[in-house]
Structure formats: structure tokens, C-alpha cells
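Colleagues,

For the teaching module next term, I've prepared a clean inverse folding example: a structure given as C-alpha cells, and then the sequence designed for it. I'd like students to try predicting residues themselves before seeing the answer, so please don't circulate the second half yet.
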């Protein structure tokens, strides 16, 4: 809820000139990955706040930062799904061979419907959210080990 109220996840289209990169594919991939990695870095900052803030803060503040870290990781992981509206789909478009471009155009037309189906269809969404939950827990545990050794 905080991310929506603070308007942090509002998509901003930034024009990028691929000709300015020495390696255009690598530069475009780095540009695309900036959003999901930024979300995961936001989570790291939330967990760092938990680690370095004074201990006598109310439990609600700790829960706020923990929820922010969880949401940030989940948004970053969702953005890496290899479907065309997501960052993972745009990376897939850069890396796919030229012979498969026809398939990719048809695939990208229905990418949003496939993504919504993954979120809505019972059974499928349980598996998808289970995988996302496991990845989120793993990343949070890695951050906790880095911060709380």
C-alpha cells in the first residue's frame, strides 16, 4: 500500500539511444534490468533500516519496513517474468534469434493475457505465487545474512 500511496512504482518511459552504447545489446539489457534491480535494492534499503535503526522503535515500524522489503522483492521478481509486457520479456526480445521473431510477435500480442491468466487461473496462480514466495524468502534470507551477521 505504501508503494502505491507514495507513487514509487509509477512507470516512467525514459528514451534510450542504443547507438550510445559500445555494446548495444548489453547496454539495452542493463537499461531494462534497472527497474527490477532497483526494486530489489529498495528492499535491501528497507532491511538495512531494520538493522541500523534504534531498537526501541515500535513493532509497527519494523513491520512497515519488512512489508516494504517483501513487496519490493516481489515486484522485482514479477518484473523478471519472461512475458513481453515485463522487463524479462523485453530482455527475451533482445536475445531471441532472428528466426523466431515471427513467433515472438504473436507471443507478444497475447503476453498480457498470458500474464493475467497466470495471476487469475486457480492452481496456476498457486504455483506461480508459491515460486515467487520462495524466491522472495530466499532473497530476504540472503539480505538478512549480509546485514545481521
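(Answer key — instructors only)
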Amino acid at each position: 500500500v505504501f508503494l502505491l500511496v507514495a507513487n514509487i512504482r509509477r512507470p516512467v518511459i525514459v528514451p534510450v539511444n542504443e547507438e550510445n552504447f559500445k555494446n548495444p545489446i548489453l547496454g539495452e539489457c542493463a537499461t531494462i534490468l534497472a527497474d527490477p534491480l532497483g526494486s530489489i535494492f529498495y528492499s535491501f534499503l528497507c532491511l538495512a533500516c531494520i538493522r541500523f535503526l534504534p531498537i526501541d522503535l515500535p513493532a509497527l515500524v519494523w513491520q512497515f519496513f519488512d512489508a516494504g522489503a517483501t513487496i519490493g522483492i516481489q515486484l522485482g521478481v514479477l518484473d523478471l517474468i519472461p512475458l513481453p509486457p515485463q522487463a524479462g520479456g523485453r530482455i527475451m526480445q533482445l536475445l531471441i534469434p532472428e528466426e523466431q521473431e515471427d513467433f515472438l510477435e504473436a507471443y507478444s500480442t497475447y503476453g498480457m493475457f498470458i500474464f493475467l491468466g497466470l495471476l487469475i487461473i486457480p492452481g496456476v496462480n498457486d504455483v506461480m505465487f508459491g515460486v515467487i514466495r520462495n524466491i522472495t524468502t530466499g532473497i530476504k534470507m540472503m539480505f538478512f545474512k549480509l546485514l545481521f551477521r
